[in-house]
Amino acid sequence: MKIDTFERLLVHELKDLFSAESQIIEALPKMEEAATSEELKEAFRDHLEETRTHRQRLEEAFALTEFQPGGEHCDGCEGLIEEGQEVIDEIEEGEIRDAALIAAAQRVEHYEIAAYGSAIAFARKLGHDDIADLLAETLEEEKHADSLLTKIAEGSVNPEAVAGG
Question: Please, what sign has the CA dihedral across residues 134, 20, 124, 121?
């Protein structure tokens, strides 16, 4: 799809987000399995369910346009997920790996926060408040996931990693 209008730029962003959410759905079970902290495992498990809802909301947003999800591949998210896989492959199981998994997951969250913020701004500028409202719900959940990861890191994982490492 040629991006020659602001509307098509919005659609491109939505397709990119749809790809990112789909990739994250594939990655989160691996991150959960690699984590040792029960609190972190639960956060990854809960975010997987939330991410499925995010992808569903994107499908709802597409239903409000003449376009379909898919057709784009989010290279940025792919790179961030690859970095998370490197953490799993290169760091021994334990608190240090958990700290690195949180850092990798937060990079993904920050990417999503930026992407959703831009898409919301585009949608609002185009008068697609219905789409913007759907995306805003997801944006708040992404911000909450980021905050939760910080809480887990600061509350138990990072202190345990320092003590054990």
Answer: positive
Longest dimension (CA), the chain: 55
Separation between Cα atoms, residue 160 and residue 90, nearest integer Å: 19
- DSSP codes joined into one string, 120-140: HHHHHHTT-HHHHHHHHHHHH
Report all structural domains of the chain as residue ranges with CATH numbers, in order of start.
12-65+75-164 (1.20.1260.10)
Supply the DSSP symbol for 157.
I
Task: Give per-residue pLDDT as tens, 30-83.
Answer: 999 999 999 999 999 999 999 999 999 999 999 999 999 988 999 999 999 999
pLDDT tens, position by position, 71-96: 899 999 999 999 999 999 999 999 99
pTM attached to this predicted model:
0.95
Give the residue among 10, 138, 20 at the shortest CA–CA distance from 64.
10
What are the distances in angstroms from CA 24 to CA 4, 85, 93, 99? Answer: 29, 12, 21, 19
Residue 106 DSSP one-character state: H
pLDDT higher than 80, residue 1: no
Which tokens sit at 161?
Answer: 């990693």
Whole-number CA gyration radius for the chain: 17
